[in-house]
Design brief:
By secondary structure, the chain is α+β, with helices and mostly antiparallel strands. The chain has a single domain, classed as Chorismate synthase, AroC fold (4-Layer Sandwich). 24% of the residues lie in helices and 23% in strands. The protein has 8 helices and 18 strands. The strands form 6 sheets. The protein has a 5-stranded antiparallel sheet with strand order 1-2-3-7-4, covered by helices on one side. Strands 9-8-10-16-11 form a 5-stranded antiparallel sheet. Helix 1 crosses helix 3, helix 1 crosses helix 8 and helix 3 crosses helix 8. The two termini are 27 Å apart. The model has no long low-confidence stretch (mean pLDDT 92).
């Protein structure tokens, strides 16, 4: 299994959804960084389960315990290792599903790849639970980047076919990004919160789930980060983003909509502003030739509906090879989009630490 990413800021996540703990080792954290644990805890709470009626009933405090790499609150240059206890496990919920792969999950492919030895409890290390240590690493990266004048934020751009106002691709600023990350339900237009929550509640009542789109931005990123071809800024971000289990698509700048434009419509004209070369528009999403342009860096990810649903579904018993009908019990999010928002910010932060 490949649970490591990066070279300049290398992370290795470990554990499973129902193991005693999960965690991360971060190699490449600069020495002398005083970690703001209150800010890290606040970031972790945004992703934590059991924080509202629209999330899973599984409650976890997600309090990180730092084992190494920090002395008296300051990084010392050694690998930073942190663990998060899995305190609220109900592994018995999965006993009846051991030989019945859940549609939309990794159960079948993991069974085949690992000869039946994969941990099936809560999805094992294929679970979205593994985004908790990723968010810890992202919170550390965000603090380091903030000291360099880089701010990262994300919001729910679309949920159950309900759209929020998009980022201003040129005018988005640090204050706006900080404000949206402080909301309990991260949308620009607060009027969209109620209908989105209603859509989640309706899906839950129907034993179903919904998905959506998350838009993430970083401002203050200088010109010149990233490499051409295989280490482009897009490549690094996308590689990390697809480590989030529910991500099924990604686009930068004008993205797929740009495919419907002419070059004259999609190109961003260069201009001079206060003696600095910039672009009048930002359809390129802050990246040209795989290298950051100095404009806001913006990407969007498509988040699939939660595959664990209560509706009857057809599967095949792995031992008898007979078709059976199952309903997935246990505690699951009817929509994981709100909790995935900080995960996208973590992706951006970790990627930028490896691009600079």
């Amino acid at each position: 299994m490949s649970c490591s990413f990066g070279s300049k800021f290398k992370i290795t996540v470990f554990g499973q959804s129902h193991s005693d703990c999960i965690g991360v080792v971060i190699d490449g954290v600069p020495a002398g960084i005083r970690l703001d644990m209150d800010a890290i805890s606040a970031f972790m709470r945004r992703r934590a389960p059991g924080t509202g009626a629209h999330t899973t009933a599984r409650k976890e405090t997600d309090t990180p315990q730092i084992l190494s790499g920090v002395v008296e609150g300051v990084t010392c240059g050694a690998p930073l290792c942190a663990i998060i206890q899995n305190e609220n496990r109900r592994s018995g919920d999965y006993d009846a599903l051991k030989n019945l792969p859940r549609p939309g999950h990794a159960d079948f492919t993991a069974f085949e790849k690992y000869d039946g030895y994969a941990d099936t409890r809560g999805g094992g290390n294929f679970s979205g639970r593994m985004t908790a240590p990723l968010c810890f690493a992202g919170a550390v990266a965000k603090q380091i980047l903030a000291d360099q004048g880089i701010t990262i934020g994300a919001h729910i751009a679309r949920l159950a076919k309900i759209d929020d106002a998009p980022f201003d691709p040129v005018g988005i600023d640090a204050q706006t990004l900080r404000q949206i990350t402080e909301k309990d339900f991260p949308v620009f237009c607060d009027d969209e919160k109620a209908p989105m929550l209603a859509a989640i509640a309706a899906a839950k009542a129907d034993g179903d789930s919904v998905g959506g789109v998350i838009e993430c931005a970083a401002v203050g990123v200088p010109v010149g980060w990233g490499e051409p071809i295989f280490d482009s800024a897009e490549s690094v971000i996308a590689h990390l983003a697809f480590g989030i289990p529910a991500v099924k698509g990604i686009e930068f700048g004008s993205g797929f909509a740009g495919a419907d434009l002419r070059g004259s419509e999609n190109n961003d004209a260069f201009a001079l502003k206060d003696g600095v070369i910039t672009t009048k528009t930002n359809r390129h999403g802050g990246i040209l030739g795989g290298i950051t342009s100095g404009q806001p860096l913006i990407f969007r990810t498509a988040i699939k509906p939660t595959p664990s649903i209560a509706k009857p579904q057809t599967t095949v018993h792995l031992q008898t090879l007979q078709e059976e009908t199952i309903t997935v019990g246990g505690r699951h999010d009817p929509c994981i989009v709100p909790r995935a928002v900080p995960c996208m910010e973590a992706v951006m932060a970790i990627a930028l630490m490896n691009l600079k």
